[in-house]
Amino acid sequence: MNDTGKQETTQGLADRVMFHTYGRFPLTLVRGEGCRVWDEEGKEYLDFVGGIAVCALGHSSPVVTRALEDQSRRLVHVSNLYYTQPQTELAALLVENAFADRVFFCNSGAEANEAAIKLARRYAGERFGPDRYTIISMENSFHGRTMATLSATGQAKIQAGYDPLLEGFRFVPFNNLLALEKALDPSVCAVMLEPIQGEGGVIVPDPQYLKRVRDLCDQKEMLLIFDEVQVGMGRTGKLFAHEHFQVTPDIMTLAKALGNGLPIGAMLATEALSPAFGPGSHATTFGGTPLVTAVSKAVLKSLLEDGWIKHAAKMGHYFREGLEALARRCAGIKAVRGLGLIVGVELNTPAAPVVQGCLEKGVLINAPKENVLRFVPPLVVEKGEIDRLIGVLETVLEG
């Protein structure tokens, strides 16, 4: 009840009792299925946000429901002081399908990136000495909101108000090898980047850029860290985005779609780095619980076995073709870019009114940058849903 004795709405209660760290839309969602969600009044929305690249198999996926129900009856949580089958089996499945030999589980993308930063510094310190600790990250990047990961994030708006940031991070422009070469000195232990910058506006690098970064890291004995939190797990039409560029990192981070909505992150690395993370070097209470890893294993198996990665590649191609056709007849679109089902549309005008206009017409999209729309729908999206999105977007843009 509010002060007048009337029943308080969910939105009113939330605004009263929660920190206002999100600029929320006036929308309370109560149910989802596939690529659709419904609000408390029963209105249906087509969801091209997907929990921000999380719900790869869609909302209320039967794969997730079955695994969640089954494991919840068996074992939900024990300490990482003990072995559990779902955690071990998920780690083995990841190793089997990735470049890596070892996995560390945590609860989020930020925690996975924290683990990557710690592993890189600890490994370099043990091998080269205490003066080798600098990590070069990219301008316009996003790695999380903990103190270490926002210190590694190349966006001033994310870092604002949190000085002093952690030292030991240096920034260079993304997709610029010369700038990276100029930034190197003997203190650099690693280069950390997203193969595709998602929060930065869906920026896809030149075809040879990542390979040249890999070569440079090899020459200088630096580690290469790929943050695949947003672009991994099949979103680009391959299991991991770096596969498009035929290059592998030393460390990779995952989260988001790995759990299809359950909180899980993972840091993967090669065997050579394993000795740096011995007992007591890093830990987490909730990372990799039997419950979340059972669900994540089911999600990963479905992606690999049920054709959703190939489907994402096919739907992504169809989607970009449709958007490029729209761009040819709509002066408001400056550029279309992306891989698979992470797609960005750069506008000649602010994006916020377009996001609002689509919301009013029952389509959810978002804008990571002032003039960029980002589309990261569930990988189970179909052509008809893509057609509807493009039709609504055209109507709004022609306003």
In percent terms, what proportion of residues is strand?
A: 15-25%
Q: What strand order characterises the main sheet? A: 4-10-9-8-7-5-6
CATH topology of the largest domain: Aspartate Aminotransferase, domain 2
> Low-confidence stretches at least 5 residues in length (pLDDT < 50)?
none
Largest sheet geometry: 7 strands, mixed
The general outline is globular
Helix fraction by DSSP (H/I, runs of at least 4):
25-40%
N-end to C-end Cα span:
40 Å
Written as H for each helix and E for each strand, in order along the chain, the element string is: HEEEHHHEHEHHEHEHEEEHHEEHEEEH
**How many extended strands?**
15
Q: Work out the count of structural domains.
A: 2
Describe this structure in words.
The mean pLDDT is 97. Strand 1 (29-33) and strand 2 (36-39) form a beta hairpin. Helices cover 37% and strands 18% of the residues. Helix 3 runs antiparallel to helix 10, helix 4 packs parallel to helix 10 (290-305) and helix 11 (308-329) runs parallel beside helix 13 (383-398). It has 13 helices and 15 strands. It folds into 2 domains: 19-48 and 307-398, Aspartate Aminotransferase, domain 1 (Alpha-Beta Complex), CATH 3.90.1150.10; 63-305, Aspartate Aminotransferase, domain 2. The chain is an alpha/beta fold and 399 residues long. The protein starts with 9 loop residues before the first helix and ends with a helix. It is globular. The strands form 3 sheets. Strands 4-10-9-8-7-5-6 form a 7-stranded mixed beta sheet, sandwiched between helices. Strands 1-2-3-13 form a 4-stranded mixed beta sheet. Strands 11-12-15-14 form a 4-stranded antiparallel beta sheet, with helices on one face.
